[in-house]
TrEMBL record:
It comes from Streptomyces cyaneogriseus subsp. noncyanogenus. SUPFAM superfamilies: Cytochrome P450. It comes from the Bacteria. InterPro entries: Cyt_P450_B, Cyt_P450_sf. GO terms for molecular function: heme binding; iron ion binding; monooxygenase activity; oxidoreductase activity, acting on paired donors, with incorporation or reduction of molecular oxygen. Belongs to the cytochrome P450 family. Coiled coil: none annotated. This is Cytochrome P450.
């Protein structure tokens, strides 16, 4: 990880958001029912709220749909290079959010022409993926996973299916074996670095991720193949190995865990909401609606850190100082009552911010590929196990303790055993 001492940009200005009323983004209530916290923050602070990150580090949480759209559309005011942050002198070297904000030579932190160059390489590499072939591959992966538990009549779908399927699909797209100890360790380290549980060491996990991807890039430079890594290496932009490593980590991390949570959150909706119960067993019509509704109401990436103010400016009636950190409240913006005054989210509307917005949004065609993986996973499971039901009461399901990701701790189900 980056040495934060080399990033220090001076003391936090007097106007930083560590003032009375700042709310810690933590606690059981937030983890299980964040929508209640968003409503309370809106009532008290409006569309931009002062918050405290781990270690009581001050930041702003952008709650409003129009405000978040403004921030992500104005890179000249709210930029991605975290070296601008006015809090670096207060950040310890083992701060758990360092994998998010410690500056790396990654596409995530680039700006202007350099960002366009790097994002262009990723876009072209992803465009080389045939979506029909991806759907076929995902269906085959789904069948192998389902076969591993179909005979038992019960399963815990988070670990056995929802996380495993996109993991295998993504690493396969990047040119790694879709199974094996090495691959599983990579996925475990990605989870730990991006969504650490108590006792985890996210900084060490991120270091291991970088080492494994370095090895993959070295292998593909020697023996290129029909995969994302090789296409990035062969791109005329001529990215260095270190640049490709960083950008591959971004691609894999963005594709694996959010897609896994999208799958599981959709299955939860289908299995607990009676609006879908009449349709699921009879066809596929409601699966697309459920996938889209989840992006509005239980988006896999709740919050994203972030943007850093280039200069003093105003946002949502707040004075934002140069170097202040803004956390993008994607989930809060998606449920902004200004865009849903009747508290009804239309599943047919796709104007959500779950893939962010602006130049730094998920690069095309990444959202389409994620949709292929998620849709195939959900449809294949429901086709193979048509009488799938929850093994616990809906209120017994719990959300993982994270302010960043929205995903269940487990999704236990039962069904009629299938003899293979």
């Amino acid at each position: 990880m980056t040495d934060t001492g080399s990033l220090a940009a001076g003391a936090a200005p007097a106007g930083c958001p560590a003032h009375t009323g700042a709310v810690r983004l933590a606690g059981l209530e937030y983890q299980q029912t964040p929508s209640q916290l968003y409503r309370a923050l809106r009532r008290e602070h409006g569309a931009v709220a002062p918050v405290l990150l781990d270690g009581d580090i001050p930041a702003w949480l952008v709650l409003g749909y129009s405000e978040l759209t403004y921030v992500t559309s104005h890179d000249e005011l709210f930029a991605r290079d975290s070296r601008r942050w006015n809090q670096w002198e207060n950040i310890p070297t083992d701060w758990p959010l360092l994998p998010f904000v410690g500056y790396q030579p990654s596409v995530l932190f680039t700006e202007g022409e350099e960002h366009q160059r790097r994002a262009g390489v990723i876009t072209q590499a992803l465009e080389g993926i045939d979506q029909f072939e991806l759907a076929r591959d995902c269906e085959q992966i789904a069948d192998r996973l389902i076969a591993s538990f179909a005979g038992s009549g019960e399963a815990e779908l988070m670990s056995a299916y929802a996380h495993a399927l996109p993991m295998r699909a993504v690493v396969q797209m990047c040119g790694m074996p879709h199974s094996g100890t090495d691959t599983q360790q990579l996925v475990d380290d990605l989870r730990e670095s991006l969504d650490a549980a108590e006792g985890d060491d996210p900084v060490a996990a991120y270091t291991r991720v970088g080492e494994r991807i370095h090895q993959l890039v070295k292998e593909k430079r020697e023996r290129p193949g029909p995969d994302i890594t090789s296409r990035m290496l062969l791109h005329p932009a001529g990215l260095s190995d270190d640049e490709i490593v960083q950008d591959l980590i971004s691609v894999i991390a963005a594709a694996q865990q959010p897609t896994a949570n999208w799958i599981c959150n959709t299955l939860r909706l289908l299995l607990t909401d009676e609006r879908f119960a009449l349709n699921v067993s009879g066809g596929r019509l409601s699966v697309g609606e459920a996938l889209n509704e989840v992006l509005w109401l239980d988006t896999p990436t709740q919050n994203f850190i972030g943007r850093w103010a280039v200069r003093d400016t105003q946002l949502g009636g707040r004075l934002i100082r140069a170097g202040d950190c803004l956390v993008l409240g994607l989930a809060a913006a998606n449920t902004d009552p200004q865009i849903w005054p009747d508290s009804h989210v239309g599943a047919e509307n796709a104007a959500h911010l779950s893939f962010s917005n602006g130049e730094h949004r998920c690069p095309y065609p990444a959202p389409l590929l994620a949709d292929v993986m998620a849709r195939t996973a959900v449809e294949t499971l429901l086709e193979r196990l048509p009488d799938l039901v929850l093994a616990v009461e809906p209120e017994q399901l719990t959300w993982r303790p994270s302010i960043w990701m929205r995903g269940l701790t487990s999704l236990p189900v039962r069904f009629t055993p299938v003899v293979q």
